[in-house]
Prior knowledge:
- This protein is of the alpha+beta class.
- It has helices at 5-10, 58-74, and strands at residues 18-21, 25-29, 37-43, 81-84, 100-104.
- It contains 2 helices and 5 strands.
- Zinc ion binds at residues 1, 4, 6-7, 46, 97.
Amino acid sequence: MSDCLFCNIIAGKIPAKKVYEDEQVLAFNDIDPQAPTHVLIIPKKHVVGLKEAQAEDAELIGQCQLAAAAIAREQKIEDGYRTVFNVGRGAGQSVFHLHLHLLGGRKLNWPPG
Ligand code: 5GP
Ligand code: ZN
């Protein structure tokens, strides 16, 4: 997907501050952080978003969540953090390559806006 921003980050064509990488997923700092820790965890496979994901993507989605938990442990924000998939434009999804937000390092309000 040459016109996909996150595919281009995976390909190394657009720089990003990587915090975690394995065979299936990549994690990097959000360019416009909304909390002291704001990491995006993405599958290396191009999946448009959660509502487009198929049963075959279930493990990948789980791997994103487990990578988030590992990063949270490493960044010592386990006191309270949040993982979020924004699904669709109405929820603020602006990049159409599945990505999990990991937010932490400050008090997180509920319900979110
Ligand atoms: P969404 O709004 O789709 O849930 O999240 C997209 C996220 O990608 C936003 O938080 C935005 O700040 C981040 N983002 C957009 N462009 C770039 C970029 O070029 N590099 C990085 N690291 N993050 C980006
Ligand atoms: Zn992509």
